[in-house]
């Protein structure tokens, strides 16, 4: 059983995870168009991870015997200045998601909802991993600067990322 407040907040989080998926799908499409297939792969794996996050919450709400309400997903940006721009936007977006997860934990604590507190722990850890990965790639992109060879090497590396449902994000 979930309180009305908790249910509403979890429903909203599904929407945020779906928007995240949509945003990374857009970045994947942009990378593909730019000829950066490795970046396109990385963002498509990220899309799959975000859909997985949305489904985790979907299953949790159903397991609690509560009713889901799905809202419209906003349109993501389609144009990005560079790979660095995409990763800076990714990090900035993930920081808003981290805040949103922290707010959910705060609500679960104030509602004395122990089950949801435990459920959300996975997301708290996941956010640390995600921000870490983004920071790592941003640092490398800053080092690469205008070096085309460096960018192609990173592109090859990001092309090796594989989606793994329960695993933490790969570097
Ligand atoms: Fe669902 Fe990128 O956190």
* Name of the CATH homologous superfamily: Ferritin, core subunit, four-helix bundle
Largest sheet: none
Average pLDDT, all residues: 96
- Report the portion of residues in β strands: under 5%
Number of helices: 5
Q: What structural category arises from helix and sheet content?
A: mainly alpha
Question: What CATH architecture would you give?
Answer: Up-down Bundle
Q: If you compute it from the alpha carbons, what radius of gyration comes out, rounded to the nearest whole angstrom?
A: 17 Å
Shape: elongated
Indicate the percent of residues in helices.
over 70%
CATH topology-level name = Ferritin
Heteromolecules bound: MU-OXO-diiron
CATH class: Mainly Alpha
- Could you spell the SSE succession in H and E letters? HHHHH
Poorly predicted tracts of residues: none
Brief characterization of the structure:
Helices cover 75% and strands 0% of the residues.
């Amino acid at each position: 059983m979930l309180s009305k407040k908790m249910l509403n907040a979890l429903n909203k989080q599904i929407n945020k995870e779906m928007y995240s998926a949509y945003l990374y799908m857009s970045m994947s499409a942009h990378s593909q168009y730019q000829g950066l297939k490795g970046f396109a792969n990385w963002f498509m794996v990220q899309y799959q991870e975000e859909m997985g996050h949305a489904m985790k919450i979907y299953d949790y709400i159903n397991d609690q015997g509560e009713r889901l309400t799905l809202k419209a997903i906003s349109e993501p940006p389609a144009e990005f200045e560079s790979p660095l721009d995409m990763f800076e936007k990714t990090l900035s977006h993930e920081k808003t998601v981290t805040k949103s997860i922290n707010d959910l934990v705060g609500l679960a604590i104030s509602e004395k909802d122990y089950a949801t507190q435990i459920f959300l722990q996975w997301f708290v850890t996941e956010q640390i991993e995600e921000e870490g990965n983004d920071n790592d790639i941003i640092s490398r992109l800053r080092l690469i600067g205008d070096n085309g060879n460096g960018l192609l090497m990173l592109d090859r590396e990001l092309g090796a990322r594989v989606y793994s449902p329960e695993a933490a994000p790969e570097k």
